[in-house]
Amino acid sequence: MTKRWLETAGMLVVLAGLACGPNKGAEPTQTPDPAPTHAATATDTSESTAGFQYPDAERVDVVDDYHGVEVADPYRWLEDLDSEKTGAWIAAQNEITFGHLSTLESRDSIRQRMTSLWDYERWGVPRRHGKRYVVSRNDGLQNQSVLYTLERLGDAPKVLLDPNGLSEDGTVALAGSGFSHDGELMAYGVSASGSDWQTWRIRNVATGKDLEDRLDWIKFSGVAWTKDNKGFYYARYDAPKSGDELEDLNRGQKLYYHVVGTPQADDVLVYSRPDHEEWGYGAQVTEDGRYLVIRVRIGTDPKVSVFYQRIPKGTAAKGKAKTVELLPDFKAGYAFLGNRGPEFFFRTDDGAPRGRIIAIDTRKPAGKREREVVPESSDTLRSASYVGKSLVLSYLENARARVERFDLSGKSMGQIELPGLGSVAGFGGKQAATETFYSYSGFATPGSIYRLDLRSGKSEVFREPKVDFDPADFVTEQVFYESLDGTKIPMFISRHKDVKPSADTPTYLYGYGGFDIAITPRFSVPDLVWMEMGGIYAVANLRGGGEFGEQWHQAGTKLQKQNVFDDFISAAKWLVKEGYTSHDKLAVGGRSNGGLLVGAVITQQPDLFGAAIPGVGVMDMLRFNKFTIGWAWESDYGSPQNAAEFKALHAYSPYHNLRKGTSYPSTMVYTADHDDRVVPGHSYKFAAALQHAQAGDDPVMIRIDTKAGHGAGKPTAKKIEEWTDLWSFVLDALDAKPTLRG
Prior knowledge:
Helix content is 18%, strand content 33%. By secondary structure, the chain is of the alpha+beta class. The protein has an 8-stranded mixed beta sheet with strand order 34-35-37-36-38-39-40-41, sandwiched between helices. Strands 5, 6, 7, 8 and 9 form a 5-stranded antiparallel beta sheet that branches. The protein has a 4-stranded antiparallel beta sheet with strand order 10-11-12-13. A hairpin with an 8-residue loop joins β24 (356-361) and β25. The longest helix has 18 residues, at 84-101. Mean pLDDT is 91; it is low at 1-18 and 20-44.
């Protein structure tokens, strides 16, 4: 394990005391010309385009053999994140990038408007724990939201945990929390600099004081308290030993039980599978306290297994309970909703690609224990909760939210009326609750919090933000266009009502397309600023996502991943053909798997776009599974160790498909030096190779943030600076003059 990553994880311990111009490019159905199989002899090269002298980036003779195909990796050295050579390259790149950004006239006005709009009170969705409500709130420009308690909804909030006090720059964030059944104790996790690694503590809710307990080496885990309030289940990895490699720490997760007031070394091992080190675990304790439900996953694959243990009184801490494999073999997706005695309720896509609700009587033998409660709908069931003796089901109807309530026999209790075209989240609570809360937001509708009376079925506003703009000034339409193979793809298009689309309209096209993640209408200050400046904001709901169920997801994975890129390229062509914009005024962006998307489309058809901003992207598709949790993405991407999947990966891998002498669009790659999910080496190598390949005059740069990670927990101040820089770069690249309407 490298020194810097050990320091990152160690920092968590101190502070606390788991989807990724114009030369003609190839048509999307064709395989782009592969990169040369051999790199040049090791040399220091300095690349340049019209006025930009890029840092020296040595090209070394590193070649790997994949199934008889030799593939060059000339920038392998940039994977060494701690070397002086990499550090010097990073410093030189940032000097050029921020030097360029400092010359852009729009930057100050964008920052001012971004700051002004971000400065509004934001509330989370309340949840009742014992005799109190717990809710998060940000007064506007706080780097991290604060956790509060309320005895009654009308009371003044009392601070429970303020993460802003954990670091001077707001880079330590609250990463998760879980409350005891009586609501008197809160286990909470914090992460530093955007790391996935977390340290967990326990706080007395009444006093706001922490207990002595401290739990380390945790990621991709919540906590599940036993009903006696004496402890909780959680999943963690073994502490590193001397000589451990970074990727070794992301296998072999184990499920433990922690007793409050005892050291972590005494925690009881509840379940592990040394013969299946790729398995990961999620724990839930049923509301009656009788069962521990274990959700077993393999990486990011939505297909899971479900096991359970009985929790007799007094034995939770002894780790001797029998594990029953209720739903083994990873054949479908299952989400446990709750139980009614021995009857377990699940949301599943087993036999229903768009989702349904089933109940399983654990007393009966397999084949006779399942009953269907709510059958599959024509809409996609994305979430469900068992609250107030009923089931609240949230659907996607062409990627926009619809919510319906059912009784436990499956009879509809009616739709929950929503304000418009948008997204919802929440609907948590106890099975006997008489109320629940949820949020609603849209492209120009900041998140409002609603209280739903479960007896009357009526909703009322709990908190509605006041933001410095008029939502009525913005319009959103949903269109459907054809991808290359004729598949109909939905796309949302939003703009200020005064913007009349034309070939001169700057347009930002965003996409993701992976890991069964649905991209739905949601409010974003940066997107609002873009629209205020006269831009069109377009979101394409690509295959690979979760908008239309598991078949839609699978149509964008492994050997079919090219469908995702075809969908995105087709969206760009449609926007131009229909007169919304022109290629020179079209920018594309995405993060993580969306960063891969942007990298792939600009290498396949670089002439289609005027600018590109790929963020924290997976750019080397032949080595992604060698770093941190990257192996877990093979469920979506496939493995380069498989011959057929290697061929598909090599055909679109952004890093391997850059062609020297090609004019690529103005591009700003952005990443963060502490990203331990998609390691920054992906972006470093892609940026170096792009600068080497670029033949046109458009700049290709990389912005490398410090003390930041993949995105979770990023302080407000860093978000404002990042998007100020990205929009300034894009506007300059598109030769667009912003007209801020605020």
